[in-house]
Prior knowledge:
Mean pLDDT: 77
Oligomer: single chain
Strand order of the largest sheet: 1-3-2
Amino acid sequence: MNTDIRLSVNFFTHPKTVKLERQLGLDGVVSLLRLWLWAVQNRPSGALTGMDDEDIEIVSGWPGDSGAFIRAIVALRLLDLAEATYHLHDWQEHNPWQAEAEDRADKARFSRLRQVCPEAFERLKNSGTNAISKAEYVKLTSRRSAGDRQATAEEMPSDTPATAGASLASRQLLSSPCLSSPYHAEEGRESSLRSDSLSGPIVPDVTACSPSEAVQKGTLRKKQAKKQPAEFPKNSEAYQLAVVMRNTLKANVPTLKEPDLQKWAQCFDVAMRNDDRMKDASFVAQVIAWACSDSFWRANIQSPGKLREKFDQLTAKMETEAAKRRNSPQAIPWKSPAQRRFEANQQAGREAKRLLFGEQEVREYRQ
Length: 367
């Protein structure tokens, strides 16, 4: 679920906002913001389906005359009406990340299906599907759960001499038309005890187990048989991106703790499959090289998760600096902080030798 929206710094000086304030006062501006904040969580696509004028004014918290708020924002083209449905004006253009929240959730749900139900995942993947709705996911996983319960019941051990009487009584109770009657249940237990006592002394069977133990053992076997996540090969794009990030951070942050490259590779793999912004591995590598070398961002971007979270800000800052370098009359070649520190140390060493030995001795020493 979305937790924020993108709001321009020029929002309060925008002509539409100024006109809205003149017509309805500050209550109109606040109601517009409340409508956007409600929509980002309940109608992330920007289409206010199933809502009439009164519904929109209620979720907006409009305190004025009924219909005045709707008329004003429609006239100012802050709200569009198409095919009897209201749409927030240019919502996907101004809040693309929030508008695609449902699509990202469907894709993430489809990726999770690979671990929960691999057969259904492969079948859908081969048919060209890369996202499923919540209802479809629940339907597929419920079928899998029902199959697991049936398999667990089949794995339960057969009756042993020690439990044959109890099992027979249980089957008789299950077939009884009065299953819920406590009298019949007690009678079944008594007949079971009588049959056990008549059959001779009961010898404990160490191989027998109760139904609850059988269920636990079956669950344990399934957990042990669960496939471990496959390691990414070193020549894969996801692993190489993890190495690039580790090496760049190590060069600029020497105290960085050695990361788990396989976990980083898994994060990059998920991002490249589900995030359209990070499809191109070469572009992601450029962003990593820039962000992990920048004096500000290298302290904040120290994992693939943070890189994906701040990806829009990083690319915007990169483009801004690239434009400045292109427009600068004397473009200075870019150097990483590590390279600049190395050159500064060399210059400091040369200056120290000059002060200690003088220019003449330094030249003789070099010769």
